[in-house]
Automatic annotation (TrEMBL):
<feature type="domain" description="Nitroreductase">
    <location>
        <begin position="8"/>
        <end position="159"/>
    </location>
</feature>
<keyword id="KW-0285">Flavoprotein</keyword>
<dbReference type="Pfam" id="PF00881">
    <property type="entry name" value="Nitroreductase"/>
</dbReference>
<protein>
    <submittedName>
        <fullName>Oxygen-insensitive NADPH nitroreductase</fullName>
    </submittedName>
</protein>
<dbReference type="InterPro" id="IPR000415">
    <property type="entry name" value="Nitroreductase-like"/>
</dbReference>
<keyword id="KW-0521">NADP</keyword>
<comment type="similarity">
    <text>Belongs to the flavin oxidoreductase frp family.</text>
</comment>
<keyword id="KW-0288">FMN</keyword>
<dbReference type="InterPro" id="IPR016446">
    <property type="entry name" value="Flavin_OxRdtase_Frp"/>
</dbReference>
<dbReference type="InterPro" id="IPR029479">
    <property type="entry name" value="Nitroreductase"/>
</dbReference>
<keyword id="KW-0560">Oxidoreductase</keyword>
Length: 241
């Protein structure tokens, strides 16, 4: 083990923050860390919107849930896939491909994880906010995002005022497969994990509930997943060819 791995393995999302700001030098390091991530074809197809206006923050907090920590966190960053910059530089650029949507989403996530890890290494905490995709067109309008730019998710950052228990992950044997995808699900491993997650939800210090992982995913996947997304992407110039 080393400090980097210790830090990665101690991850938990933080949703409660003190009122302390993040020092500008620290924020700069976090943003540098984000930009240091690898970049598909070196396209650098992302922008980060730093939302400092309290009114815009409040509206984003409402649109995302409501999720009050979006307004309360010291910093709120919105990671975007951005092909607008390329089109300004190369007006004849071919954009709107599904592949480019993947690039924007993948590279944006790599940047964000670098940012969160950098923040955590400085004693800060944070949580991603996919909830901003509940109302993507409103987010575009609020942030003045041009066509060919889409908001992927937000990231709240600040000084933690909670120390939640860590959420256990699936056993490695259910996630990592060697050479060939397994023919069937390992029911025994899943049953163990369901018990582990049920114990975690029952024992944790806030928001206790009686739920297994299987019942949780059945609930989430029993609903439609933002079915308006296709039309939204088209309207932002991601024609998905
Ligand atoms: C892309 C992404 C979007 C997320 N969106 C939200 C969100 O809108 N609100 C929230 O409270 N947590 C959100 N989360 C945090 C997850 O709920 C959390 O990572 C998961 O439950 C595991 O908990 P942990 O991060 O504490 O280990 C998001 C996580 C990811 C990766």
């Amino acid at each position: 083990m080393n400090q980097t791995i210790d830090l990665i393995l101690s991850h938990r999302s933080i949703r409660q923050f003190t009122h302390d700001p993040i020092e500008p030098q620290q924020l700069d390091l976090i943003l540098q860390a984000a930009q240091a991530a690898a970049s598909s074809s070196f396209l650098q197809a992302n922008s980060i919107m730093r939302v400092t206006d309290p009114l815009i923050r409040q509206q984003l907090a409402e649109l995302a849930g409501p999720q009050p920590y979006v307004a309360q966190a010291a910093e709120f960053l919105v990671f975007c896939a951005d092909f607008h910059r390329h089109r300004q530089i190369v007006p004849a650029a071919h954009t709107g491909f599904v592949e480019q949507l993947l690039i924007g989403a993948i590279d944006g996530a790599l940047m964000a994880q670098n940012a969160l890890l950098a923040a955590q290494s400085l004693g800060l905490g944070g949580v991603y906010i996919g909830g901003i995709r509940n109302h993507p067109a409103e987010v575009v309008a609020l942030l003045g995002l041009p066509r060919h730019v889409i908001p992927l998710f937000g990231l709240c950052l600040g000084h933690p005022s909670q120390q939640p228990e860590q959420k256990p992950r699936l056993p490695q044997a259910m996630v990592v497969h060697e050479n060939r995808y397994p023919e069937r699900l390992d029911e025994a491993l899943l049953a163990d994990y369901d018990r582990q997650i049920q114990d975690y939800y029952q024992a944790r210090s806030s928001n206790n509930k009686v739920q297994t992982w299987s019942s949780q995913i059945a609930g989430t996947l029993g609903k439609e997943a933002r079915p308006f997304m296709d039309a939204f992407l088209q309207s932002q110039g991601f024609n998905l060819k």
